[in-house]
Amino acid sequence: KFNKTEEQLETMFDKWxxxxxxxxxxxxxxxxxxxxxxxxxxxxxxxAKFTPEEAVSYEDSLKAYRDNINTLNTxxxxxxxxxxAKGKIEIILHAHNKGFSLAQIADFSGVAIDFVExxxxxxxxxxx
Length: 128
What we know:
Blueprint: H1 12-22, H2 39-48, H3 52-97, H4 102-109, H5 113-127
Helix pairs in contact: 3-4, 3-5, 4-5
């Protein structure tokens, strides 16, 4: 019983009824339905038009994309962690060379005193 045209849409309820009633007729997304809330509806509608082969291909492509994003994010996180660790070691060595105590070094570098001692011992070994 909903018979409004796109130009007559005033409320969000009107827009939803119009979208659901007219969805099969749309060639593109109507101007009155550009709100973010309708994005998911139109995405699902696009996917629903796929043939079974296209759906499998799309899912495979989406899986590969997500795998690539996850791989990249993991690599970036690991690189950041490695860089942070290297930076802390450099701070520890520099602070030690400036005469700061182990407790002071541990405090401003945000690590345990045991870690500071280990870094200093490892540095002595690698210098020999």
